[in-house]
Design brief:
By secondary structure, the chain is mainly alpha-helical. It contains 5 helices and no strands.
Length: 172
């Protein structure tokens, strides 16, 4: 009873309204949580994809510079000059930088690492043909790896799933 002796009666429609409000509130909270998760996942995927694209381009530039410097040094007559010292420093820097950019468990990565380690041993004039072959193999192995990585980037951007694609570059 209330002050005036009136009885408050709760009708069934009041329960229906209350149920509707609770369901609407619950759906709003659920939609907010799902939207937040989706936004966070999209942001993460975009960040990873963006960084992977930068990594692909930087590795491409580093391999090209390494191959170009090695070829220039080997084919030119720079022995004993200051320019030779600069080129050799750059080749050595790139050799180590490239190895640091690679996955030690990746199939293509290991082939590239092997070639990067082998190429300096082929710089004697008597091994010119072997050096040219190794530089070509380095280019081909890098192309294969970059193609595989580019396919991963496209799949990540399309599907938004990083887990399955990460298995590609590791050994079985």
């Amino acid at each position: 009873m209330c002050d005036g002796g009136e009885v408050l009666s709760v009708e069934s429609k009041d329960y229906i309204y209350l149920g509707g409000i609770i369901v609407t509130f619950g759906l709003g909270v659920w939609n907010f949580i799902q939207g937040h998760r989706t936004t966070r996942k999209a942001s993460f995927i975009n960040t990873v994809t963006s960084q992977r694209i930068k990594w692909i381009e930087q590795l491409r530039q580093d391999i090209a510079a390494f191959s170009g410097c090695t070829h220039t040094w080997h084919m030119s007559n720079l022995k004993g000059t200051e320019k030779e010292v600069e080129i050799l420093k750059e080749i050595d820097r790139l050799r180590h930088l490239i190895r640091l950019r690679l996955n030690p468990d990746g199939v293509h990565d290991r082939k590239i690492t092997s070639l990067i380690n082998e190429i300096p041993k082929l710089t004697h004039i008597s091994k010119r043909d072997e050096l040219m072959t190794a530089l070509d193999q380095l280019t081909i192995a890098t192309q294969e790896m970059l193609k595989e990585e580019w396919e991963k980037v496209k799949a990540e951007a399309k599907d938004g799933d990083l887990k399955e694609k990460c298995k590609i570059r590791t050994n079985p």
